[in-house]
Amino acid sequence: MALKGIKVVEFAGLAPGPFAGLILADNGATVVRIDKPFSSSSPDILCRNKRSLAINPKTRSGLDVLKKLIASSDVLIDPFRPGVMERLGLGPDVFLDTNGKVGLNKKLIYARIAGFPRTGSHKNMAGHDINYLALSGILSMLPGSHDRPTFPLNLLADFAGGGLICALGIILALFERNSSGCGQVVDVDMVSGARYVSSFPLIHTLNPSTGTFARDRGDNLLDGGAPFYNIYPCKDGACMSVGCLEPQFFKTFIEHFVKALPNDFKQQYRWNPDPFIQFDRDAWPKLKNFLELGFKTKTRDEWATVFMNTDACAIPILTPKESSKVEEFGQQSVPLPHPRILSKKQNTTTMVIDSDTIELPPGQHTEEILEELGLTNSEYQRLVQDGAIEVSRSKL
Questions:
Q1: What average pLDDT score do residues 95-107 get?
Q2: CB 317 within 8 A of CB 300
Q3: I need a labelling partner for 218 at 20 to 30 A (CA). Which of 13, 88, 282, 306 fits?
Q4: Of the candidates 140, 82, 75, 147, which has an alpha carbon nearest to the alpha carbon of residue 111?
């Protein structure tokens, strides 16, 4: 495992922070999630291969233990709004050497994820994925109805621009530490992260001459304007995805599509699209109507059979339950870690993920972690007396 031996402290949060920690844990890092004590459950389902320490940093003894833990770790993940960790007495300056001051852990990679950029007029505002996408400029480009765009769950800002970018920043900082011997602050904000992973469409808008996003939303090649890059409902209400952008793929698609249509449909419609009309925008409305009606003559699975093992770029849209049974995914209900990194010394056996590991009760490993830190019995007693840890989960 590439990150074996790397110790990570992840303060409990929602979505991006836990995902960054999950990526590190899946690649061998030892991840300790810091939870609030006296809590029986956590909303975090991205807890695979992690442990939980429930402790209150607002107590003197709890703060001391966290400083000790972080001082012996490689990475800290801060998911809070700017200033929270500093007010707790756990800001970067406490650990990293700054302005001639020696910190507690100069090798620490201090990764912090904010929603809005840390400078500017939005820095102190609350927000969520949809708000970060709104400010990034990318939400205005996403497909939707004629009067408004829609949003891709909370995937683009929270996970792609937040958690994934944070994990990348941590790995880059660890790589740099090999030569410098020093840690650093990794700053991630989900607005900038969403913009970065959306570089392709955003740069195209700055260069209308490319034609890819030169028109209004919903009238371009990749945002629902093109009939050959779209979604079509079938006879049973399920859908097919069509993405045959290249002429040779479009030709294959049209040939298989027309051949599979019922004879009565062909006789009634009395029009077969020529593969050469693909980029004739005047023909797009008629072509889209032809595909809309044609796909409704068969069920999704029947169309999937038509296009299987072809270069038509037509794939059935599966539900999460159906997708979990796909052979390529190892028939796992929980997504497997990706990418797979194999060497000649490793076998290619599919990793088995326990779907029951979506819950990690706060404080489940409190005793274990405190013992590893070498706390004395009196220090345990002090934590209990201060209310820093829950009595039932402490070693008295």
A1: 91
A2: yes
A3: 306
A4: 75
Catalytic residue among 97, 128, 219, 386: 128
The answer on pLDDT for 6 being more than 80 is yes
Statement: residue 140 has pLDDT above 70 = yes
Q: Cβ(218)–Cβ(224) under 8 Å?
A: yes
128 is catalytic: yes
pLDDT at position 344 is 67
Over residues 260-282, the mean pLDDT reads: 93
Q: What is the pLDDT of residue 396?
A: 42
Helix 247-260 and helix 300-307, axial crossing angle in degrees, nearest 10: 130
Marked catalytic residue, from 26, 35, 74, 158: 158
Confidence of residue 334 (pLDDT cuts 50, 70, 90): confident
Do 89 and 66 touch, CB atoms closer than 8 A?
Answer: no
> For position 355, what pLDDT does the model report?
55
